[in-house]
Amino acid sequence: MGEDMDWTGQSGAVAWHLIFRHAEDWSETGDMMEAWARAYCGQREDALTARVAELEAALKLIADTDPVDAALDPQRAIRVAAALLSGKERS
């Protein structure tokens, strides 16, 4: 199992259960834990990269739309731009 297992999308709880159940020794336990951690961190990194790109687009949109708002209150600018990107009305 271990390295051959596709850990993508597995929660920590499910991974723990599978590792506890199927690892033959401490070495295999470590290998399986490392494989799960690499998959989990990769997923988180992909999600974070996508979110950063979305926020950068939102900031550019609000800066182009209302540069004064963007300069005075960046947090509000992010919320407004995210709403514009998702098609919601501006608040």
Structure explained in plain terms:
This protein starts with 11 loop residues before the first helix and ends in a 5-residue tail after the last helix. The relative contact order is 0.11. The protein is built from four helices and no strands. The chain has 91 residues and is mostly helical. The protein has helices at residues 12-22, 26-65, 67-72, 74-86. Helix content is 77%, strand content 0%. α1 runs antiparallel to α2 (26-65) and α2 packs across α4 (74-86).
Q: Could you give the topology of this structure?
A:
Blueprint: H1 12-22, H2 26-65, H3 67-72, H4 74-86
In short:
With 91 residues, this protein is mainly α.
The H/E string reads HHHH
The multimeric state of the shown protein is single chain
| Low-confidence blocks of residues | none
Class of secondary structure makeup: mainly alpha
Backbone shape: rod-shaped
| Mean residue pLDDT | 79
Helical fraction: over 70%
- From the N-terminal CA to the C-terminal CA, the straight-line distance is 52 Å
Strand content: under 5%
According to DSSP, the number of beta strands is 0
Task: Evaluate the radius of gyration.
Answer: 21 Å
